[in-house]
Design goal:
By secondary structure, the protein is of the alpha/beta class. It has one domain: 3-Layer(aba) Sandwich (Rossmann fold), CATH 3.40.50.2300. The protein is 39% helix and 18% strand. The chain contains four helices and four strands, in the order E-H-E-H-H-E-E-H. A four-stranded parallel beta sheet has the order 2-1-3-4. Strand 1, helix 1 and strand 2 form a beta-alpha-beta unit. Helix 1 crosses helix 4 and helix 2 packs across helix 4. The longest helix is centred in the last third of the chain and has 28 residues. The radius of gyration is 14 Å and the shape is globular. The two termini are 24 Å apart.
């Protein structure tokens, strides 16, 4: 088997959106792919609402610790997806996909659940693109 390729999900604090995206990607990852996530200014812990909402999805992120965005993570990534929007969101090397999702950390549960569902939808679409690209022999999608 060849090298495992990596999708790097990035946001400001690596406490909600990027952790959720990483978890969904790794749950449904196509063969030969994995995800990691990081933040420009990592929070001390994953947001409790993220833990709760992902538990409802059958995914445990309670042991996950936010990690800093490093040059090594960026250089080791085959694809970068920036999941946050706004001024505090990191600018990373191209090619990077930008999802510009609102921060669910300050939202009510129902609103945060909708953001989590949107992340899941986008992750599944990304995985489908990766599978299609792999089956056609084309390069990594931008």
């Amino acid at each position: 088997m060849g090298r495992v390729r990596t999708v790097l999900f990035v946001c400001a604090e690596n406490r909600f959106r990027s952790v959720v995206a990483e978890a969904f990607f790794n749950r449904f990852a196509p063969e030969g792919w994995r995800a990691v996530s990081a933040g420009l200014s990592p929070a001390p812990a994953v947001h409790p609402l993220a833990v709760e909402l992902m538990r409802e999805e059958g995914i445990d992120v309670s042991g996950r610790r936010p990690r800093p965005l490093t040059r090594e993570l960026l250089e080791g990534a085959d694809m970068v997806v920036v999941v946050c929007g706004g001024a505090q969101c990191p600018v990373v090397r191209a090619p990077a996909e930008r999802w510009e999702l609102p921060d669910p950390a300050g939202m009510e549960r129902g609103e945060a659940r909708r953001v989590v569902e949107e992340i899941k939808r986008r992750v599944l679409l990304l995985i489908q693109r990766l599978k299609t690209t792999s089956s056609t022999g084309a390069g990594t999608p931008a």
